[in-house]
Amino acid sequence: MAKPTLRTKLCDILGIEYPVVLAGMGGVSRHKLVAAVSEAGGLGIVGAATMGPDEMREEIRKIRELTDKPFGVDILLPTMGSIPQTPGTAMGGPAEDEEKEIPRNWRDMLPAPQREFAATLRRKFDLPDVEPEYPTPSGRRERPVFGPGFTRSQIDTILEEKVPVFASGLGNPAPYVEEFHAAGVKVIALVGNVKNARRVAEGGTDVVVAQGAEAGGHTGRVGTMALVPQVVDAVAPTPVLAAGGIGDGRGLAAALCLGAVGVWVGTAFLVSLEAAWDETLKQRILAASEEDTRVTRIYSGKPMRNINNPLIEAWEEGGVRTLPFPFQGAVIQEVTYAAQQAGRKELGMNPAGQISGMFDEQRPAKEILAEIVDQAAEIIQRLPADVPAVTS
Ligand SMILES: Cc1cc2nc3c(=O)[nH]c(=O)nc-3n(C[C@H](O)[C@H](O)[C@H](O)COP(=O)(O)O)c2cc1C
Fold it and tell me: Is 0.85 surpassed by the pTM of this model?
C-alpha cells in the first residue's frame, strides 16, 4: 500500500512529514523513543524536565546518532511563585542555589499533620522505615532542583546544541521566545485552559498544545473535546495541537475536525517498545481500563492523572490537606521511597491517561505512528461517503 499523505500546516512549521508529536514525557520520552518517532516522520520530543545540562546534552547527542530528522526538548518553566525554597522535591536540585546552606533538618520543617499521615501510610502498607536519600548541597544524590538558575542552564543547553524545537510543559515561554527565534528554534507551549493559551500565544509561541483533562500526567480540568475548539478560536491564527486521550487515527481525525493542526500524543507512545519506562508499570497501563486512572495531588501537589492504586485511595480518603507543589512531593517521598525499596511498584507514581484502556500490547513506535496516520487518512477520505446527508 502506498504511504498516505497527511500534511497540515504543522508539517511545514516543524519540517516533519506527519502531524503527530510525541509528548515530552519525563522518564519516558528519551533518545530511543524520540528518535523512533522522528525517524518515522513525526516529531519526537525529549521529556527533559529534571535533566541537568550534562544529561540533556548526552540525550541530544544520542538522538543525533539515531536520526538526522528534527526533534524537540520539553522542560517545565517554573513561575516565580512555584520556585521551591526547599530542596528534595520531585523536580529538585539547586543550580544557582547550590551555594546556599540548606538546613539538615529541613524535612522537620514540613507540617506535622502531613508528615504524620505519611508515616501512618508507610506503616499501613507494611513498608520499611528507610531514610530517603535526599539531595544535599554537596549533592550525595544528584537531582536537579527547579529554579531560575536550573531553567537557564537547560535553555542554554538547548540553544548550544541547536535543538530545532523547544517545548514548555508548564509556564509561559514568552521571556525566552526572542532568543529561541533568533537561533531558529520553534517554540511549543502546553496549556490546559483558554486564559493560558492566550498568554502563551501573545508571548510569541509558535504552536499551542491544548491539553485536555483526559491526559496522563499533570492535567487540567477541561476535557479535550471542549478545550481544543475554544483554544483554536482564542489564539487564531496561531496553530494548535490537540492533546489528551488521542490514541489512534480516530483521535487525529477528530482533532483536525476541531480545528487543530495535529496531535501531541503521550500514553499511546508510553506503551511503545522504545519507551524508557519500567516494565511492571507499563504492564499495569496495558492491563488498565478507561476507568482505572485517577487525578491526584498526592505525588507532586499538582493534579496528576495516574493509574489508580491503594496509596492514592488511602491519601485521598484520609482527609489530610494536600500540600502545594513542591512540598507535597517532599512529604510523600517517605512512602514512595520506602515502596521503591520494598519492590512495591504498584504504590508508586504511574502517570497515564484515560486512553490507557485502548492498549493491550507493546508495539514499536513506528507502527503506532503509522497506524495513527493511516487510519486518520482513511477516515478523512471516506468521510463524505460515511455522512450521506452531506453527499446526497
Ligand atoms: C508518564 C507521563 C509523563 C509525563 N511527563 C511530562 C513532562 O515531563 N512534561 C510535560 O510537558 N508533559 C508531561 N506529560 C504530559 C504529556 O506531555 C501529554 O500532555 C499527555 O500525555 C497527553 O495526553 P495522553 O497521555 O492522553 O496522550 C507526561 C505524561 C505522562 C503519561
Answer: yes
